[in-house]
Amino acid sequence: MGLNEQPRMRLATLPTPLQYAANLTRELGGPRIYLKRDDLTGLAFGGNKTRKLEYLVADARAQGATHLITVGGTQSNHVRQTAAAARAAGMECVLLLNSDSDDPPLEGNLLIDRILGADIRLITAADERTIGMEQAAAELRDTGAVPYLIPSGGSNGVGALGYVAAMLELNHQPWEAGIRPGGLYFVAGGGGTHGGIALGAALFGADYPVIGVMIEDTAPEGVERAFGIAAAAAERMGIENPLRPEDVVCADGHVGPGYGIPTPECLDAMRLLARTEGVLLDPVYTAKAFAGMVADVRAGKYRADESVVFLHTGGAPALFAMQDMLGPVLA
């Protein structure tokens, strides 16, 4: 089936705006910077996972699912949006959350998960995720329920369709604004968003580079993940994958000490966007990707008369559980 024939449940408020960041542009001295506001997709405070869930939840419904099962950390943005999507679809939701504590603070995304009434099960290690999901699914099947398993971040060939479709917006809106971007920057993590964007860019003729900024691991690992997911999405659509691995661009150098550990540059990026445009980033994902774009701008990669787009994928609710790591921003 082609993209238009894929099952889809409308969950997001679309299209999300493409906004000119005039104050930020002046602060950096050009190029013209635009923000693609996928933090405004609307489902339980929004974020990029809502686009993926439109296809994942529709696939679950097509299979007669009664429960969604997924995994993440206690402050996972994906988990929050999945719990909300389950409610919108009339389903139950089981969440397996990594936590070092038997009683993690009820704040940020975890608070929202509780409000949504999800069945929350705490695990201590990432390698327990697959086993825990399978055990939860087996328990549900024994009761006559029908579980549907969603991987971390919704990062598979079905979820990536959300960002294949998003490239239709990211082609039309720059044209409507009268700009031709020199680059599109976004978070590169689990590969689902990146794989969908890269595939959609190739299919719909985006004539600008799409650059995933690594927030964990290294560029070769990011390329492998995104390319594999793009291939799975193409197979789902019944088409030949038009991408080669070298078409998938990942920018290294912004992870810092490791995943989830803020760098001075990402905290500076948070402060910069908040205090020029009133737009909030989070230090785990979007601030590191934004810092990657800012670094390229400050290095003179783009002329002052060019345009650059940053895809804001959300994550603000997690800020309410991150007071300790945000000291430099608050100073």
Question: How does this model look, in words?
Answer:
By secondary structure, the protein is of the alpha/beta class. It folds into two domains: 3-47 and 156-330, Rossmann fold; 49-153, Rossmann fold. Helices cover 40% and strands 16% of the residues. The protein has eleven helices and ten strands. A six-stranded mixed beta sheet has the order 1-2-10-7-8-9, with helices on both faces. The protein has a four-stranded parallel beta sheet with strand order 5-4-3-6, sandwiched between helices. Helix 4 links the parallel strand 4 (92-98) and strand 5 (119-123). The longest helix has 19 residues, at 219-237. The termini are far apart. The mean pLDDT is 96.
Question: Top keywords for this entry?
Answer:
alpha/beta; about 325 residues; 11 helices; about 40% helix; about 15% strand; 2 domains; six-stranded mixed beta sheet; globular; Rossmann fold; four-stranded parallel beta sheet
Helices, strands, pairings?
Blueprint: E1 18-20, H1 22-28, E2 32-37, H2 49-62, E3 67-73, H3 77-88, E4 92-98, H4 108-115, E5 119-123, H5 129-142, E6 147-149, H6 161-177, E7 181-188, H7 192-203, E8 210-214, H8 219-237, E9 249-251, H9 264-277, H10 286-298, E10 307-312, H11 327-330
Helix pairs in contact: 1-9, 2-3, 2-6, 3-4, 6-7, 7-8, 9-10
